[in-house]
Amino acid sequence: MKILNAGQIRALDAYTIKNEPISSADLMERASQAFVNWFINCFDVSKSVSIFCGKGNNGGDGLAIARLLHAKGFQVRVFVIEYTDKESDDFKQNLERLAGNLQVQSIYESHAMPELHSDQIIIDALLGSGLSRPVAGLLGDVIEHVNGATGIIISIDIASGLYVDKPNEKSDTIVKPDHTVTFQLPKLAFMMPQNAEFTGDWHVVDIGLDKRFIEETLSPYYYTDKPAGEALTKKRGKFSHKGTFGHALILAGRYGKMGAAVLSSRACLRSGAGLLTVHVPECGYEILQISLPEAMLSIDPNQRNITELPELSSYSAIGIGPGIGQEPLTVRVLDELLEQISTPLIVDADGLNILSKHPDLIDKLPEKTILSPHPKEFQRLAGDSANEFERLELARNFAKKHNVVIILKGAYTAVILTNGDVHFNSTGNAGMATGGSGDVLTGILTALLAQKYTPEDAAIFGVYQHGLAGDRAAERKTKTAMIASDIIENLGW
Ligand SMILES: NC(=O)C1=CN([C@@H]2O[C@H](COP(=O)(O)OP(=O)(O)OC[C@H]3O[C@@H](n4cnc5c(N)ncnc54)[C@H](O)[C@@H]3O)[C@@H](O)[C@H]2O)[C@@H](O)CC1
Ligand SMILES: [K+]
Question: What does the UniProt keyword field contain (predicted)?
């Protein structure tokens, strides 16, 4: 799925109206109907509904939704906020259509707010994608009032006060919904962890905007939903043998951190690599042989740390980083690896910390190396940023400049390709914020590279499958109880 900016969404609306063709009032009706379909799927008519409307098209949606829900038998109260005399045409039209059906209450002043009970559902139709400045005055007071309510809050299209495609100030007044029901496409703002409380659970409803226009509109932002994720799966042919799926090499672990080697290696085997060799310090010999009999070992002469690079010629992809530490001899191994490597590479964890401390090594990274930092590792690697929008830009520039694929880990993990395109992931959950979860991803990615997925596809697909396995693990164990091994046990496609 593509993600468009506010201007592109406006153009998409206009294009659909002109070329379908459909009147803007009918498009609003279709959008409102799509919202109502979602709504009646979730709530029954025993619920009463309070709808707060602004005077633009988002408010128009609110009025149309009020009429449609009333017709379905819901008890509906409608409030129009009188913060301006300017009304959009479709707002006016829907206000007229409401007359006779439902009484509209106007709110003129901050001290005259309606009481909101906890069993009432509040629908936020104050401002949508047309937001152009911070909310203030009466509208701001209404938002504060709504946020103070204990009932369920649902925002139409986007929480009022939240920008579609740029950062808000910390002091901005924004609705904090439990749900956002958004039209046609997810919005960039939803991908930013800083906006979590301003999106709630968000749901995309199809309102029939022009698909070809969406396809042809250039945007660097994509959302890896189920169809996009599944489309990347490579089928295993009937006549394939273990050589077909490559020979992966993972360099991981040191004394006290051998678990990282076990986790990444097991995940690699569970992700379809034909063969796996793990290079570990001597102290890892028994641990690996016993816990992972399917893996072959390359034993470093050093007892505690990785200090020597194994011979590389037989491997089809290499993963380095989990638990390796940053000892000078280990740094030298990474340096030598970068000198010699001619296969796809993924660098994670301590591998990334080494790169941060030795920036000269960044220039040696082979093109399309995958780097998979969590926010702190990325900050060490690329520097500070004022907010998550800025961090994303920093990552896009870094990926383009160094010709690498970056996996910025977090909620909606962003996979950033060498051309600066960003693919936000749809799977995963907060239960995955647990030690070893990143090591698992390294193993998955190494396996995919060994199976000749391109680095771009490996990153997008690997992150997607990692999250999916995490979702299955959470379902079986709960988010609280799940650990990284559960992610591995739930891999499979
Ligand atoms: N255009 C279309 O065809 C469709 C639009 N739809 C709805 O229309 C919304 C966008 O509508 P609009 O473009 O009318 O914009 P909004 O309804 O978001 O905003 C209305 C007006 O408020 C003003 N405004 C902006 N920021 C403000 C602030 N902080 N305080 C006070 N006033 C402010 C702007 O001048 C804007 O025109 C979407 O989010 C969606 O809900 C849907 O009905 C689907 C179809
Ligand atoms: K809204």
Answer: ATP-binding, Isomerase, Lyase, Metal-binding, Multifunctional enzyme, NAD, NADP, Nucleotide-binding, Potassium
Q: Give 27's Cβ-side CA count (13 Å radius).
A: 23
Which of 58, 88, 206, 209 to mutate for ligand 1's pocket (most ligand atoms within 8 Å of CB)?
Answer: 58
Pair 312, 416 in one domain: yes
Share of the chain above pLDDT 90, in %: 97
225, part of any domain: no
171: exposed, middle or buried (Cβ count in 10 Å: 0-12, 13-18, 19+): exposed
- Is 223 part of a structural domain of the chain? no
Distance 51 CA to ligand 1 centre (A): 16
For residues 38 and 63, state if they share a domain: yes
Least distant ligand from the CA of 131: 1
Q: How far does residue 172's CA lie from ligand 1's centre (Å)?
A: 18
The whole-angstrom separation of Cα 44 and Cα 32 is 17
**pLDDT tens-place string over residues 103-132:** 999 999 999 899 999 999 999 999 999 999
pLDDT tens by residue, 88-97: 999 999 999 9
Using DSSP bridges, classify how beta strands 296-299 and 275-280 pair: parallel, antiparallel or unpaired.
parallel
Are 241 and 174 members of one domain? no
**Domain of residue 373, CATH code:** 3.40.1190.20
* ipTM over cut 0.90: yes
Query: Of 218, 244, 270, which one is at a domain's C-terminal end?
Result: 218
CATH number of the domain residue 181 falls in: 3.40.50.10260
On whether residue 79 sits in a domain, the answer given is yes
Which residue has a Cα nearest atom 2 of ligand 1?
13
* CA–CA dist 264, 252 (Å, integer): 8
- Please tell me the residue having the least CA distance from ligand 1 atom 9: 58
Is 413 flagged in the annotation as binding?
yes
Give the H or E element holding residue 179. strand 179-183
Residue 173 Cβ < 6 Å to ligand 1: no
User: 67 in a domain, yes or no?
Assistant: yes
Q: Does the C-beta of 180 come closer than 6 Å to ligand 1?
A: no
394 is in an annotated binding site: no
Range of the structural domain that residue 432 is part of: 230-489
Phi-psi sector, 22: left (phi>0), alpha (psi -120 to 50), beta:
beta
* 270 and 404 assigned to the same domain: yes
Say how many Å lie between the CA of residue 60 and the centre of ligand 1: 9
In terms of domains, do 235 and 214 share one?
Answer: no
